[in-house]
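Box S2. Input/output pair 1.
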Amino acid sequence: MRVLDGPYWSRQRRVIIKAEVVRLPGWDPGCNLDFVVTNLQETPAMVYASYCQRGDVENRLKELHDDRALGRTSSTRFWAN
C-alpha cells in the first residue's frame, strides 16, 4: 500500500496493489495485477475484499440484465430495484 497525491486529486489517496503470479498447465507464468485507489482507512486486505465483493455484485446484476433478459430496471436508485 502507498499513499499518493496526484496533480488532479484534491487530497491524498491510498493505492492498494495486489500482485500474483498465475501458473496454468501448458502456459508461461503470467502476472495478475490489481490496483484499488481509495480513501478508506481499513487494512489493505479488508479494502481489497470489499472492492471484490462490490465487483461480484455488479457482475451478478450484469448477468441478470444481459443473460436473463431482465431489461431495464424501474428506478435509478439501487435499493429501489
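Box S3. Input/output pair 2.
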Amino acid sequence: AGRRVRALRHGMAGAVGLELFGPFDDYDLIRDAILEAGTPEGLLAAGSKTYSTVAHESGWFPSPLPAIYTGDALAGYRSWLPATSLEANLSLGGSFIGTSVEDYYLTPNDIGYGHIVKFDHEFIGRDALERRREEPHRHKRTLLWSKDDVVRIFASQLGDGERHKFMDMPASHYATCPYDEVRKDGKTVGISHYPVYTSNLRSWISLALLDEDAADPGTEVLLTWGEPDGGSDKPTVERHVQTAVACTVEPCPISIAARETYKA
C-alpha cells in the first residue's frame, strides 16, 4: 500500500498475528491491501465478533478490575483520573458478591503473569507482590460448560416459567468486569470470567481463576450463572433467576495450538 505502519507482534489462539498502527486516514487503503494479498492464501475477514472468542481460546484475560480504588498511595492517581476514564465508568457484574472492592482485585500470579513481574525497580505494591510470590495463589484455567445446562438456559427464554440470565452469542458477559462464583463441594473455590461460545469447540467456555485444590484438569465444579435477587439495575440485565451450570476444568489455554506454540 506504500504506507509506513508500526507493527506489534500479537498472536491469537496459537496463530501468528500483528497489530498495525498508523494514520487512521490510511485505514481502508491498508486493510484492502492486506485482504487482497491474503485472499489467494485463504485469508478471510471473520468479523469483529470472533475476536472475543479466539482471545479466550488463547487464555488472554481481557479486563481485570484495576486495583486502584483503595489505598492512600493511589489517592493522587484517583483524583487525577477524569470522570470519562474507564476506571470511572466500568461495571461489575455476575454472581460473585464481595464484601469490599478489594475482593475483586487480582494479582499477576492469579492471571498467569507472575513470571514477567520484575523487582529491579520501585513501584506501588512491590513489597506485597514480593511477599506473595511463593505463596499459594489461584490458577488460570478454562471452564468447559455443560451443554445440557447451556441448552436449559436458552430454553428458559421460551414459554412460561422461570427465566435465567440471557446468554448473548458469541460473548455473554454483560459487564465490563464479569465475576461469577465457582463452587466445589459447597465451597467457593474461584471466579469465572468472560463466558463465550467457541465454534472451534462447539461449546461454551469461560476463563476461571481457581484455588489450587480445584485447578486440576478434569475437576468438576459448579458455576452460578446470573445475579442474585433477580438481577441488578444495570441496563444490560433483565429480570432473571440464578441457576447452576456444571463445568469441567480444562487447561488454559484450551487451544492445543496455543498451548504448544507460544504458550509452551
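Caption for Box S3: The longest strand covers residues 187-198. DSSP finds seven helices and ten strands in the chain.
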